[in-house]
Amino acid sequence: MLAALYIAEVSPAAIRGRLVSMNQLAIVLGILVSYLVGWALAGLGDGSWRWMFAVAAVPSLFFLGALFFVPESPRWLVKEGRHAEAAQVLARLGEPPSRLREIERVIAEESGSLRQLLEAGMRRPQLIGVTLAILQQVTGINTVLYYGSIIFTEQAGVRSTSAALWANVLVGVTNLVLTVIALFTIDRLGRKVLLIAAAAGAFWIYASMCAGTVWFVWKFTPETKGKNLEEIEQQWKR
158 with 171: CB under 8 angstroms? Predict the structure, then answer.
């Protein structure tokens, strides 16, 4: 969340979508690598899960070290009154001097209070942001990403743990390929089209089945609460 917010604040508008997508690319690449590592370590026996958790410290340490070379966000620097540093960061990013004045104007209009979050101009983007964040989590993809190996083992007939983890790798490869496609199309096609086109595939089938169930129960299924079997039988004959 913070990484995407930071990238959005420091990115030029023309390539902001592409750079935020790079963050997503790094995430799905990390997921794929973790799947590969999990598959490779599965042969160590029952204690392999400890190694799977332990090796996650390696990229975390690299990330921690890299953060020392990342500049502060120009918006944050302006908010803290450090305008000269903000100008230096913007120049480093290739932004024109007018960008600093624009940030200063916007920051001057922000109060940072809870009341401002409830203002008319903020309610709609807030609603959209929160709703999209929720929908992206509940549409089902996280179930596949987090529990893919268990799903393959218990529901798809995969017998061995190693084979289930390998199937997980294929999921990770698919995720990576589609993220790369999005990376090269997001600034050309726009965010809205990709959001609509990407809403979770097979899960539309499940959603239509659920909608059909609701309609069928509402339209044709009678309520049997408090009725004995004889009364239910008579109800069918009416």
Answer: no
Per-residue pLDDT of 205-238, as tens digits, reads 767 777 887 887 788 777 767 666 656 666 666 6
DSSP structure string for 199-227: S-THHHHHHHHHHHHHHHHHHHPPP-TT-
For residue 155, the one-letter residue type is Q
Q: Where are the alpha helices (DSSP H) in 11-82?
A: 16-41, 48-54, 57-67, 74-79
pTM of the model: 0.59
Q: Between the CA of residue 214 and those of 103, 108, 138, 157, 199, what are the distances in Å?
A: 50, 51, 19, 30, 21
Q: Residue 80 CA to chain centroid, in angstroms?
A: 30
Cα separation, 209 vs 186, whole angstroms: 31
| Tokens encoding 135 | 């929908």
C-beta separation of 3 from 69 below 8 A: no
Q: Which CATH superfamily is domain 2-236 in?
A: MFS general substrate transporter like domains (1.20.1250.20)
Q: Is residue 105 helix, strand or coil? A: helix
Cα–Cα distance measured from residue 38 to residue 71, given in angstroms and rounded to the nearest whole number: 34
Residue 101 makes CB contacts below 8 A (sequence gap 6+) with none
